[in-house]
Amino acid sequence: MAKRERVMRMSVEQPLWRALAGYRVLTMMYAVGLFAAAYRSFARPWIAVGFFAVLVVWTLATLPRVASAAACTKRFLTADLTIALTGILLTPLVDDPDRVHAGGPTLPSIWTAGSVLAFAIKGGWRWAALASTLVAAANLIERGGPARDTVHNVILVWVASIAIGYVVEVARASERTLARALEIEAATRERERLARDIHDSVLQVLAMVQRRGAVIGGEAAELGRMAGEQEVALRTLVSGGLVPVSRVSEDAAQGAVVRAVEHDGDGTGDDDEPVDLRSLLAPYAGAQVSLAEPGAPVRLAPAAAREVAAAVGAALDNVRGHAGERARAWILVEDEPDEVIVTVRDDGPGIPEGRLAQAEGEGRLGVALSIRGRLRDLGGSADLISVPGQGTEVELKVPKETNHVNDPRGKAEQR
User: Fold this and answer.
1) What pLDDT sits at residue 236?
2) Spatial separation of the C-alpha atoms in residues 300 and 303, rounded to whole Å
3) 169, 65, 168, 80: which is closest to 116 by C-alpha?
4) Contact at 8 Å (CB) between 129 and 172?
5) Between residues 320 and 117, which one has the greater pLDDT?
6) CATH, residue 327
7) Residue 412 maps to a domain
8) What domain range is 380 assigned to?
C-alpha cells in the first residue's frame, strides 16, 4: 500500500501581511501627494525631496519583506522604523514653522503606522507597544510639546497597534490549537485503521489457532492457549493504545503545518477511476454465502469500495465465528441514486442484548471498528439489527460522493 503525505497549512495572519504590503504602498503615495500639493510651502523642499526618494525606493524594494513573518526580520523592522522616525524629526527642519505648529502632517504622514503595524503582526502587542511609544516620542519632539491633535493621533496609533498585536497573538494560539487537534484526529483515525487491519487478519488467525488447538489437544492445546493469551494482549493494546504525540510544526512564514499520511490502495497510482463494487464482493459468495446484486455495475471510489468490501468481510467473519461454520449468510447489494446499500443477513442465533457493548469493553472491535468505524470514515452508516433466535442483519450505507478516507478535514489543499 503506497503512502502519500498531505500537508495542510493554516495561517490566519497571512492576509494581514498582504494587507500591510498594500497599506505601505498606498500610504507612501499619499505622503508623496501631500508633499507635492504643499511643495511651495516648505522652507527646505530639497531635503524633503531627498527623504521621499529614499521612502519610495525603500517601500517598493522591501515589499517582499512584508510578505510573511519569516521575511520580516528584526533588522528590517529596526531600519523601517528608523526611516519613519527620521521623517518625523526632519519635518520641523524642512517645513514651514507655522504649518508645523498648526498641526500639519509630518513628512511620512500615516506611512509611519505601517512600520508600527509590522511590529504588531511580527511580535504581538509588546513589540507594538515599543514601536508606538517611540513614534509617540518622535511626534512630541517634532511638535515641541503635547498638542491636542498630536496626542490624539499618538493614542490612536498606540491603541490600534497594541490591539492588533494582541489579536495576532490570540490567532496564533488558536491556530496552533486547531493544528494539534487535527493532528490528533488524524493520528486517532490512523490507529483505528490499523486496528481494523489487525482485527481482520492477526486477531482472526489467533482466535482460530486457539479454537483448533483446544479441539486437537496435546501440544496443539498449549499452542492454542498461548495464542489465546496473545489475542487478549493484542486486543487490549488495540483498544486502548495511546495516540501519538502531535507533530504540529510552526512555520512563521506560512503558519502552522499539519502532516497527515494517507494510504493509496495498491501503489499503482491508478486510484481515481471508480470501481465496480460487485467485483470486490464476488469472492465472498460460496456454498454458505449467497450474493444478490444489480445487473449493472455498482460504481464507487476505489478507497470507498475497498472499505465497504472489508466491512462485509468483517460481518461474514462474525457470522462464521459466532453462528458456526454451517450458518448461511446472504449479501444484498442495492444501487440507489445517492448511495449504495449493502445488507449482510444470516440465520444464526442472533446477538444477545448488551453483548456488543460487552465485546467492545473486552477489546473485541469487529463491529465497532471493522464495520462501523469503516463506514463512519466514509461518511456513511452501519446499522445492526439482531433478534435472538432469528439471526442478525447488518445494513451498510455509503454515499456515492465519498472521496476521502481517514481525512479529518475533508477536501483539504494538497501540496
Assistant:
1) 60
2) 8
3) 80
4) no
5) 117
6) 3.30.565.10
7) yes
8) 273-415
